[in-house]
Amino acid sequence: xxxxxxxxGSRDFPVACQxxxxxYLQAAAxxxxxxxxxxxxxxxxxxxxxxxLMAGLMLADKTAALEDDLQKALSEVAAREQALSDAEERLAxxxxxxxxxxxxxxPAPEQVPVAVIPSEVKDSLAEIAARAEALALEVEGDA
Length: 143
Description:
Blueprint: E1 3-8, E2 11-16, H1 22-43, H2 48-103, H3 119-142
Antiparallel strand pairs: 1-2
């Protein structure tokens, strides 16, 4: 079992670890050293046990905040996935309805609605037609 020396808060600590875990231990020690440096910069000298405790608590606080952020993000992802699933379901229903309408036979001729043209429109069209005929006769007469 390898033993490495890590430095936290300008103090050396010998630590044993499993074979191959040295890089992970050094990365963790660097995080702890960063927090310890902040504490020592604010407070000055303190016993190693207190420094390690305070640095560990600061890292635990950051970790808890990150876990809260992760839970919020996971909840948001779940909500968006549900919304997407609901939208896909609605889309599938509409696609099925369109397919049903396309496959359904058209209405019988007696069921096709007939447009009702108001009498005022009929009268206006008849008057326009009469004028057009009069113009056509006039043009034929001039020719």
